[in-house]
Amino acid sequence: xxxxxxxxxxxxxxxxxxxxxxxxxxxxxxxxxxxxxxxxxxxxxxxxxxxxxxxxxxxxxxxxxxxxxxxxxxxxxxxxxxxxxxxxxxxxxxxxxxxxxxxxxxxxxxxxxxxxxxxxxxxxxxxxxxxxxxxxxxxxxxxxxxxxxxxxxxxxxxxxxxxxxxxxxxxxxxxxxxxxxxxxxxxxxxxxxxxxxxxxxxxxxxxxxxxxxxxxxxxxxxxxxxxxxxxxxxxxxxxxxxxxxxxxxxxxxxxxxxxxxxxxxxxxxxxxxxxxxxxxxxxxxxxxxxxxxxxxxxxxxxxxxxxxxxxxxxxxxxxxxxxxxxxxxxxxxxxxxxxxxxxxxxxxxxxxxxxxxxxxxxxxxxxxxxxxxxxxxxxxxxxxxxxxxxxxxxxxxxxxxxxxxxxxxxxxxxxxxxxxxxxxxxxxxxxxxxxxxxxxxxxxxxxxxxxxxxxxxxxxxxxxxxxxxxxxxxxxxxxxxxxxxxxxxxxxxxxxxxxxxxxxxxxxxxxxxxxxxxxxxxxxxxxxxxxxxxxxxxxxxxxxxxxxxxxxxxxxxxxxxxxxxxxxxxxxxxxxxxxxxxxxxxxxxxxxxxxxxxxxxxxxxxxxxxxxxxxxxxxxxxxxxxxxxxxxxxxxx
Length: 637
Known about the structure:
Blueprint: H1 2-19, E1 24-28, E2 31-34, H2 35-48, H3 55-74, H4 81-95, H5 102-117, E3 118-128, H6 135-153, H7 158-165, H8 171-174, E4 177-181, H9 188-196, E5 206-208, E6 211-222, E7 226-235, H10 242-260, H11 265-272, H12 276-279, H13 295-303, E8 314-316, E9 319-329, H14 334-345, H15 353-365, H16 372-388, H17 392-398, E10 405-408, E11 413-415, H18 416-424, H19 438-456, H20 458-461, H21 463-492, H22 494-503, E12 513-521, H23 525-536, E13 553-561, H24 566-573, E14 584-592, H25 603-626, E15 629-630, H26 632-636
Antiparallel strand pairs: 1-2, 1-15, 3-4, 3-6, 5-6, 7-9, 8-9, 10-11, 12-13, 12-14
């Protein structure tokens, strides 16, 4: 056992000495390229290739690839503003997966889907707070919502308090009742609080961009999916007396009787519906789910069992309706919605959850330390300046003589002036109702700094990211320089292109071919019929056919090279194939002998071949200019 263990240890040690480090495989001037990068590019590209190459074979391609990059850098193409901007864009996009916690992101996706498949019935009370509210106003609103909650906890009726206090304009009519809703129908903080509040309970105070809320949850149910209906409407203007509803009820009842007598729903909608926008389409409405229509309309729509079912007249605040069910669809499974959910969560607060988890990891990893005394003093100064003035310049003036280093890491040193500069860009407008409100702003600022620090270290920490960035960097440069040195030259060098074409004209000869029309018959006896028809009607268009044919005839026009179609080879050149064709041909046209084409006829192919020649000449010149040095022994090792 000891001998085996020792042998294994020696093998591991030898393997480590062979493969540890990143030995230089290629040198071009002062530029060195290691085995790791070569292996990464080789394995990635070879895996996708239909004709895989050995490492020895691939080495030449790698050398050519890096020669182009070095030449592009020598020409300064990597300093062009357009290149710098494009590379930064790609880096920002490639960095995103490294700066977000995948497990946390998946949990958010699962939460969002659970909110989509389960609906909540709730009411709310709103006390508004404007985005630019001053601290005293924010504090007043907060104290008001706390007092309302206290009344609720002492047994007050939620609906009555909603009518009395809520600043949601609809509360007077609905007592704060929102009906059923599901995920993404409310702002995220409201949605999350609603789903976390037990049935028949009132939430804690919830802060959203609208202000402060209290939420009472009445019940939950499975999402019914979406339904599509058509409707016929007799409209009642807002504010009309109840007697006007009675008049329209008589009209809608007469239309309902027409439908019962067998009249077509779509035709009745077109002729009589007051909703002219949908009436022209037979009353058809788009698919909708819970919370998208007024409750009376929504409930009537979902109550219809089968497609084609028609409701009795339904009264809403807008008038009277008759509904016809057209279709229904359930909530799709998670995997069918995953990409859509990811896009939607990126637009609200939950899209930052993955990043927040990453920040928590980075705070531990970097062991971030803060001077709490200096931070408290900064919060005091910020609050005092914010309370005395809404102008950012006053805050900066108050901090002019206080520029202490609050965070100090090996890679990250932050002074309070850095934070103030950041607040000046937008965070300063956030409400300060108390001194403690400054600390979340500070934390957000530090989190951004940590993310930026981590982002700057991605190449150092993750070899895959470094190689991927090298790929984008090199790819952009090669594209730019290849345009200049090869592609544009081949297209614009008229003299060179014509000379190349003349020298290699035999490569572009048009082969022996048949030019004309081919008639492919499924019935053999139609061949004789067609030949007789064409002989008697030679002046007719080539797509003319006689009547009474026994089978189908497919007409093809164009140029057909010898050897590309067995049936045409037999009909035109008398060449028999081992496989018997079930298609019978009639042809109208002529055989063309091999001939030299005009350059214009084959320009695309000539340009492509000329580009290949220019690239070979260019690579030869680059090899002579830079004299690359390759350690081929490393490939074998």
